[in-house]
Amino acid sequence: MQLTHLWRYPLKSGAAEALETVTLGEEGLTQDRRFVVVAARGKFVTARTHPQLQRLALREDASGQWRLWHLDRPECGSVSFATDDQAERLDIQVWADRFTALSVSFEADAWLSEQVGMPVRLSWLGERSERYREIIAQRVSAADGFPLLLANQASLAALNAQTPSADHGMDQFRPNLVISGAEAWAEDGWQEVRIGEARFTLVSSCTRCAMVNVDPATGDKRGDGEPLKTLARVRRFADGQVHFGYNLVALDPSRKSTLRVGDEVEVTAFK
Q1: pLDDT tens digit string along 252-263?
Q2: 9 and 180 in contact (C-beta within 8 Å)?
């Protein structure tokens, strides 16, 4: 088995960034989900309610200028800003977690509000996230609940084989790590894995909602309700939820390591 894709999402619910190599730190992949769109009272905004967010690409400036970022949407222009760890502190909320983040710029807020269609602000978690999750006893980014998400290419192929359209891409499920060489749904029986030089525990399978029906290329929800409709038929677990992919936590989160496309994947413990 090997690691075939590495993806991060600098903006929560924003466009994916494909990588060949990346550093794994205490809070997940470097620069993964460090920025969050927030509305009134700091509540987070995602593509569940505003699917157009998936068309927004946030990238660091390629020139290497310190903390300079560009946020753009095809055919809608872009806005640039620099992050500042002395900026205004904002009280924000991601699911049940309330913590503080940093503001970015009024220009970025105004541009982003036009794209979302309501007043919003762009917040940055800073170099060190203030969000701490008791369930895994560590700090995390603005990911839904866990630092990393793993998906199996064979499982997507098995799902596509049962859906009417059979054309769903892995990008609809927004994983960080995609593996190949395993049998479909083999991950259901894994407890721990080694990917390259890093070791992980599979904490829980990932519950799914209608966000998987969003086409990342257009930012629109599919009209046929797929693939969630088929997932509800073939991957509904005893908890009544629909599942695809697994949430990972590094076994030694304080140790920095490097992940590379092509890394060997080995199951080191089974359930």
Answers
A1: 988 999 999 999
A2: no
* 12 DSSP 8-state letter: T
Shortest CA distance to 136 belongs to which of 26, 259, 3? 26
- Is the preceding peptide bond at 227 cis, omega within 30 degrees of 0? yes
Contact 203, 247 (CB under 8 A): yes
Q: What is the mean pLDDT of the chain?
A: 96
For residue 9, give both structure tokens.
């999402």
Q: How many Å apart are CA 173 and CA 100, to the nearest integer?
A: 28
Q: What is the pTM for the complete model shown?
A: 0.96
pLDDT 10s digits, 17-58 = 999 999 999 999 999 999 999 999 999 999 999 999 999 999
- Residue/partner pairs of 219-228 with CB below 8 Å, 24 or more apart: 219/47, 219/51, 219/52, 219/53, 219/54, 219/55, 220/51, 221/51, 224/164, 224/165, 226/163, 226/164, 226/165, 226/168, 227/159, 227/160, 227/163, 227/168, 227/172
